[in-house]
Backbone:
């Protein structure tokens, strides 16, 4: 299963639950590849999965699994004929989960939950009036989630719910994409581009981005829409020059009313891109929250993942941000980086707690297909990420950092999670809104995504082109999609009481 050239056959008979089955398999085999068919003769090798649904008077759901030349294991369950499709899907996945737990000896901490927003399920039950014990019992029984993960999900929901209850339904958020980095980290799967390869595109890209911001600004003014939060992400926004950063932030200031903005964030990100001049530009134009993201302070690990800065560079960048006057700083760390050991991660986290940023986000290494690390297969999973994450929960909460947002990704080491922790009052509204999908977010720039949340909770996504040259070349065609933004903003405005 660690050979990326091999595709494990998945035979689906009587149904089309491809996505759900693959997501369940990924809980056990993070970097495996699969081929899907309805040809039962494909079940004759050393590894395969047969997932079958037979409908008669009842519905018989059955699964057969063989891995790595071992014995064939099977399981089945009978459902009533009038059951819903989601019940069949759930039963198939639960049978696969049970067999693979037996075969591999692995018990995924999040159980059958494969979605990226587990906290939403907790909040839904909280809003129905259920108490902590009832919520944990219900989710634990249905999805087989461990008590440890139920606790962190519940604590996150407790801290998130008051913020969600105060959301301004008339307002929207703005995301500005600057998809460039000094170099590409080995774990990275985002659409970002090294400065060496993108430098010739920079003037045209900055001009196109500013044009799009003006177009979006006109729509916001026309529909009398308030901007609630602004977030500059990437890539690494501080990869560009101070002058280019000033041009973009000036364009935002010229085209949007910032008087009611509750949070303005810029991912300063990589320490090797942070200068005093850039920080002063960010401060001048009203951004009040930045990120300084070392990921680790271990110089050997930084080299392995392709970063050109040292741990000391990260500490200096943090202190420089304090000197410039930023009193709301987030730092990102990653648990499970290649070659990182538990003691090294613990030392990094302890040092960051000592620096006392307002928030600390702990990600877990995710091995995406487009990342360099994927080429090495599942060998990357052999690290103490679970121990690191467990330590981070206790250390951060003991030092006054509360979990306030969480998301999960496919192919994450040990099926773990990403959690943002903050001191009380320093939770990022934008991070909460994007995870809960309760507010429209207008995206500008290459690879940005606009998420339109209609008053009836319908969600429509509009994706910009992924690559700078596409974004520049097809800019006018891309702007034709902006009509739907106007429609959504008008409906948001008309649905709210005056």
Residues:
């Amino acid at each position: 299963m660690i050979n990326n050239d091999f595709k494990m056959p998945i035979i689906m008979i009587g149904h089309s639950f491809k996505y759900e089955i693959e997501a369940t398999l990924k809980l056990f085999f993070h970097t495996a590849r699969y081929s899907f068919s309805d040809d039962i003769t494909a079940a004759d090798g050393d590894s395969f999965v047969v997932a079958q649904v037979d409908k008669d008077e009842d519905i018989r759901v059955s699964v057969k699994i063989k891995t790595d030349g071992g014995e064939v294991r099977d399981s089945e369950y009978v459902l009533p004929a009038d059951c819903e499709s989601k019940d069949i899907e759930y039963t198939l996945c639960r049978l696969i989960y049970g067999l693979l737990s037996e075969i591999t000896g692995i018990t995924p901490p999040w159980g059958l939950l494969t979605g990226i927003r587990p906290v939403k399920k907790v909040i839904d039950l909280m809003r129905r009036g259920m108490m902590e014990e009832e919520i944990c019992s219900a989710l634990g029984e249905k999805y087989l989630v461990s008590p440890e993960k139920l606790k962190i999900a519940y604590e996150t929901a407790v801290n998130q719910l008051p913020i969600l209850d105060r959301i301004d339904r008339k307002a929207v958020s703005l995301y500005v994409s600057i998809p460039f980095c000094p170099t590409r980290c080995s774990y990275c799967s985002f659409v970002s581009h090294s400065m060496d390869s993108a430098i010739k595109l920079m003037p045209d890209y900055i001009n196109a981005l500013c044009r799009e911001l003006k177009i979006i600004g006109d729509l916001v003014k026309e529909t009398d829409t308030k901007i609630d939060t602004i977030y500059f992400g990437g890539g690494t926004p501080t990869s560009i020059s101070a002058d280019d950063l000033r041009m973009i932030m000036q364009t935002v200031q010229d085209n949007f009313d910032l008087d009611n903005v509750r949070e303005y964030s810029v991912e300063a990100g990589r320490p090797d891109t942070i200068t005093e001049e850039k920080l002063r530009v960010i401060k001048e134009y009203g951004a009040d929250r930045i990120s300084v993201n070392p990921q680790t302070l271990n110089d050997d690990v930084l080299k392995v993942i392709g970063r050109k800065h040292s741990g000391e560079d990260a500490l200096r960048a943090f202190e420089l941000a304090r000197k410039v006057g930023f009193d709301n700083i987030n730092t990102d760390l990653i648990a499970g980086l290649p070659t990182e050991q538990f003691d090294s991660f613990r030392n990094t986290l302890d040092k960051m707690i000592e620096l006392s940023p307002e928030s600390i986000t702990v990600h877990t290494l995710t091995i995406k297909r487009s990342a360099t690390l994927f080429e090495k297969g599942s060998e990357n999973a052999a690290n103490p990420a679970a121990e690191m994450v467990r330590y981070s929960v206790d250390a951060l909460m003991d030092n006054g950092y509360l979990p306030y947002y969480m998301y999960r990704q496919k192919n994450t080491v040990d099926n773990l999670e990403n959690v943002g922790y903050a001191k009380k009052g320093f939770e990022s509204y934008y991070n909460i809104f994007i995870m809960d999908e309760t507010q429209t977010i207008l995206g500008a720039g290459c690879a940005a995504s606009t998420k339109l949340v209609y008053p009836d909770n319908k969600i429509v996504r509009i994706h910009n082109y992924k690559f700078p040259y596409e974004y520049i070349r097809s800019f006018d065609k891309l702007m034709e999609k902006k009509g739907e933004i106007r429609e959504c903003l008008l409906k948001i405005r008309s649905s709210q009481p005056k």
The longest strand covers residues 58-66. Confidence is low (pLDDT under 50) at residues 369-381. The chain has three domains: 7-104, 118-163, 164-484.
